[in-house]
Amino acid sequence: MADHALDVRVAQDSPAPLRAAFTCDAGRVLALVGPAGSGKTRLLRCIAGLDRPQRGHIVCRGGTWLDTNQRISLPAQARRVGLVFQNYALFPHLSAEDNVMAAMTEVAPAERVRRARALLARVHLAGLNRRLPGDLSSAQRQRVAVARALARDPQVLLLDEPFAAVDRMARRTLHVELAEMRRHLDMPVVLATDDLDEAAMLADEICILHRGRTLQQGRPLHVMSRPASMQVARLVGVRNVHAARVVAHEAEFTIIDWEGTRLDAKGAPQFDVGKRIAWALPSDGVIVHRRDRPSRSEHENPLKGSVAQFLPLGAQAELVIHVNGRSEMALRTSMPLHVAARNRIAAGEEVGVSLLASSVHLMPWQEAGDGAATGRDHESTVPHPASSRTR
Question: Is position 339 within any domain?
Answer without folding.
Answer: yes
